[in-house]
Structure formats: C-alpha cells, structure tokens
Design brief:
With 558 residues, the protein is mostly helical. 71% of the residues lie in helices and 1% in strands. It has one domain: Growth Hormone, Chain: A. The N terminus is likely disordered.
Length: 558
C-alpha cells in the first residue's frame, strides 16, 4: 500500500523495469522441482565461507604475535587479540542491518551481494599485502567486515526468494544444504590455511582466502540469469533516502560496536549526531513521499497509542482484508486502518522476532569462542597426534564444521523419529534445547581447564576437546540452522533481508559480550568458561518461556 500513489508508483515502476531486463522477479509458483539458481548460490557460499573461515583461522594467533611485537606482554597481547577478534566478528554481524536496508529498499539483493563482494575481495588483498602491521590488519578487517557483513543478510534471504508455493516444502532442506556448504568450506579452510601459513608464511596464507572469495564472486555473477531477482521497494531517490536515514538511525546505537574504546562523551556525541541526521533525512523522505515502511508505521502506531486517536472503537471501519486480530489491537489498530494489514505486519513481525532472538546472542557469545579462548586453551594442552606428529592449536576448530556435516543428516533422522512419535520438533523447541546443550559444552570445557590448571601446561591431551566441540556443534545445528529457517519464514515479503539481519545482530551482540568480558584481564580462564555456562543456562530458560507464548506465522514468497 502506498500513501502517495502518484509519486511512489512512478519510482517503483522505474525500479522494477530495470530488474525486468532479462531477470525473473518472482519464483515459479507451480513447480515442485528445485529452483535453477540454487547450485550457484551453494557454490558461491562454499567458496565465500572458505575465504572467511580460512582468514579467521589465522586471525587470533596472528593478532597476538603483532600485539607482542608492538610491546604488549604475553597475557595482555592475548586479551587484546581476543577483544579485537570478537569486535571484528561483531562488526561482521552488525553491519547486515545496513546491508539489509540497501538490499530491500535501494538496489535489491543480487546487486548488494555482488558489489559488496568486490569490497570483500579488496579486504583480503590488503591483509595479504600488509599483514605485518596492525594498521594493515585493521584496514583489511574493516573492508572484510563491510563486505561480509553487508552481504550476509541477503545471501540467506536470496536462497528463500527462489521458492514459490509449489516447492515451499523444500525450504527446510535448502537451508540445511546451504548450511552444509558453509561448513564444507569452513572445514577445508580451517585444516589447510594454518598449514599454508606454517610452510609459506602469513602473506600467502591470507592471499589464498582472497582467491577463493574472488571465485565466489564469479560463481555468483555467472548464475545471475538463473536467480529470481526480487526488486527493491521503493528504489530510486526515495530508496536512497530510506537507506541513508535508516543507516543513520541504526548507527545512533550501532556505532557502539566500533567506538567501544572511546570516552563516554564521544559515544554520546556520536549517538546524538546519527539520531539527528537520521530523523532529518527521514523527514525529508516523508515530505517527498509518505512511507508505509517499518519506521513510519511504528512511529504512527506509537503516536496514536498515546493520543485519543489510538483507541480502536466500534465505529472504526476496516476493509475485509483488514479484519484481523491485529486490526483490533489498541497499539496497531489505527496503523492497520491507515497503512493496511500487510504493511503493518512487517514491523509487528520484527518486534516479535526481536523478543525471541535477543537471548540467542548469549549462544553466539559461547559459540564463537572456539576461534579464540578455546584456541588459547588448546595451546596449554599436549598437541601431539602420534609419534612426533603434532596438530596446530588453531586446526582443532576444524572439528566444528566436520561435525556439522555429519550431524545435519543425523539430526534430521532424529527430528523425524520424534515427530513420528508425537513429539513435535518445532523450530523454537529445537533452539531452546540447543541453548541448554551449549551451556553443557562450556561446563565440559571449564572442567577441562580445571584439569589443565591442576596438571600443568602440556600434560592434558588435546583430543579431550572433542567432547565440548561435539556438544557445541549439536547446539549449533539446533540453533543456527533452525534460526535461519525460522527468521526467513516468519518475515513478511518486504522485510526478508531486514529480519535476517536481526538474526545476524544476535551474533554481533554475542561477540560484543565476549569482547567486554575479555577486558577483565585478571579473570582466570576456567572462571571465564563457568560464567558463560551459567549465562547460557539462564538465557535458555528465559528463551524457552518466551517461545512458549510465541505464535508463529509463515510467509511464503508470493
């Protein structure tokens, strides 16, 4: 629904015409077969994840060595490396908020993915050429965060866009295939890149992931004619104002992911600046063409709620399409009356999903530590494999993607068994159980650390880490894959990428939590693990209570 049909329809017509030149803009609703673009998306994702996790496998230890060279003592260097690694991860998963806005409102998912992939490639090039300086690392990581973070919400949403009513039953399977390709790339990169670094040095080791990222970009470009290209709405000048205003409003809070080390007054000034800029740009946009998007509807509903106009009375009239429980809501009723049922469902879905996903950030705070604090633990262990053969401490994390590829089909069989016996494995139930299993993984890793502290460095065999890796991977399969499926199916058509970005934001919040705790340099590693085990158990309990009252609603891509 548009509040200014003459203005916005002209903008949308121009936007849609640019997408109709050789591209399909909607999926085949009748076919039950697999969409033709899926192999290109899977191939792209496997190569992209190889590049990202290959780089990430080097990151913690390489940063530690650079901080030591810059004058930091050993423990300080490790804490700085942990903090930097997780703030980088936070950036990667916070920036999807902006990438989603660009895709949904301005240029579409395909163009967002393709052009930001080139930025991604540039970041790898900087790491390969300037890996021996902290400045070079910061610039390279910044470019990768912009590239990877920008495309992240679009890639998973682009998978779902390829399916219509006829083959919608394949959505759960495709997200499992998609996640399998993620871990396929991750496993081989985590095994091979540390060996390449050991034999040829860090410059070559950082260059190889860059080559794979370029291959990922080319695979995606080759498949462009096979994809469904959902046009952005509204696009054009109005879409640009939407993007700039929404990005500014997000940065009013989102800048904290990048300014955590600045003084409080600097953070406050940045928040005020971005908030004022965002509201100014949004007011300009509204004067040109009143919006029926997330921000406009939410502000209108809030204003109506605190005014007499906010009360939905017996005299209010609604069209047949607006007759719903949402139309009768005291908070959203007037918004439905003005903007329509479909448009109002967008912000409602966002707020519902935020209330469910917020606690998942604690899971990601645990999970992403297998690339930092678990490596730190592995360095204290006996790394001998057999005879004089040793494994590298940062190779052990390859257990995670390997176990994911094994566990995906195993968990599917387990889910089917439970479903067939009357125990419904709904997405929210799977996520809840997965969070408790994640807590158990940190109980095991904390017990291992107590054992290491008692026996001394180099005494406890590294293979004992298999057990916490098994538990955290089971949790990942239950939480992460399910979360991708759940976020996409619960998102109205206009907000697919946006809601996927909120899922990614839970990862960012988790990494910020780790980076914050890493600043407590006096906290023993075992206590660090116990703290997160307790946090995860508490978060799982609250999540289970919230999910019990959640009423799901699936949205196919019509």
């Amino acid at each position: 629904m548009s509040l200014n049909p003459e203005t916005t329809s002209k903008e949308e017509e121009q936007t849609h015409s640019s997408f109709n030149e050789g591209y399909r803009t909607s999926p085949d609703q009748e076919t039950k077969d697999w969409p033709p673009g899926i192999p290109f998306i899977v191939g792209n994702e496997a190569c992209e994840r190889f590049s990202f996790y290959g780089m990430k496998a080097l990151l913690y230890l390489h940063l530690t060595s650079l901080y030591i060279l810059s004058g930091a003592i050993d423990d300080t260097a490790k804490n700085l490396a942990t903090s930097t690694t997780h703030l980088f991860n936070a950036s990667v998963y916070a920036l999807p908020m902006i990438g989603a806005i660009i895709a949904d409102r301005l240029v579409g998912k395909y163009r967002t993915i393709f052009y930001l992939s080139l930025v991604y490639c540039a970041g790898h090039a900087v790491l390969a050429l300037a890996e021996d300086t902290l400045l070079g690392m910061y610039i390279g990581l910044g470019l990768i965060a912009v590239g990877s973070g920008g495309i992240k919400p679009c890639v998973a949403a682009n998978v779902g866009d390829q399916f219509g009513k006829g083959n919608w039953f394949r959505v759960r399977t495709v997200f499992q295939i998609f996640y399998f390709s993620v871990n396929f790339g991750s496993f081989f990169s985590t095994i091979s890149i540390p060996l390449i670094r050991d034999q040829y040095g860090p410059s070559v080791a950082f260059a190889v992931p860059g080559v794979l990222m370029f291959m990922a970009t080319m695979i995606f470009w080759i498949g462009r004619r096979e994809f469904v290209h959902i046009p952005p709405k509204p696009g054009g000048k109005i879409g640009l104002l939407d993007t700039l205003s929404s990005a500014s409003l997000f940065l009013a809070v989102g800048h904290l992911f990048f300014t955590s080390h600045y003084d409080v007054w600097v953070k406050l000034a940045a928040s005020i600046f971005f908030l004022a800029l965002g509201l100014l740009l949004f007011s300009v946009r509204q004067r040109l063409a009143p919006d029926d998007g997330f921000l406009a509807i939410s502000l209108y509903a809030l204003k109506s709620f605190f005014s007499r106009a906010g009360n939905v009375t017996a005299g209010d009239t609604f069209s047949d399409s607006q007759q719903s429980a949402l139309a009768s809501s005291r908070f959203w009723g007037k918004a439905v009356q003005r903007f329509g049922q479909e448009a109002t469902e967008g912000p409602v879905a966002v707020f519902k999903i935020i209330s469910v996903f917020f606690l998942v950030s604690v899971f990601w705070a645990l999970f992403d530590q297998h690339a930092s604090s678990w490596i730190r633990q592995a360095e204290m262990m006996n790394l001998r494999l057999w005879g004089e053969q040793k494994v590298l401490s940062n190779q052990i994390q390859s257990l995670n993607p390997l176990l994911v590829m094994i566990l995906i089909p195993v968990m599917n069989i387990f889910y089917s068994f439970l479903d067939n016996n009357g125990i419904k494995t709904t997405p929210l139930r799977r996520i809840t159980v997965g969070m408790f299993i994640a807590s158990l993984s940190f109980v095991v890793v904390a017990l291992l650390q107590n054992w290491i502290d008692a026996e001394g460095k180099g005494k406890v065999w590294f293979a004992w880490q298999f057990f916490p890796f098994l538990l955290i991977t089971v949790a990942e399969v239950m939480v992460s894959i399910t979360g991708l499926e759940f976020a996409y199916t619960q998102a109205p058509r206009r907000m697919k990428s946006t809601i996927m970005s909120f899922w990614n934001l839970t990862v960012a919040l988790g990494n910020v939590l780790i980076a914050f705790l890493a600043s407590f340099q006096g906290l023993p590693l075992a206590d660090f693990f116990w703290v997160f085990a307790g946090l995860m158990a508490g978060a799982g309990l609250i999540f289970g209570i919230r999910s019990y009252f959640y009423v799901p609603k699936d949205y196919t891509q019509l």
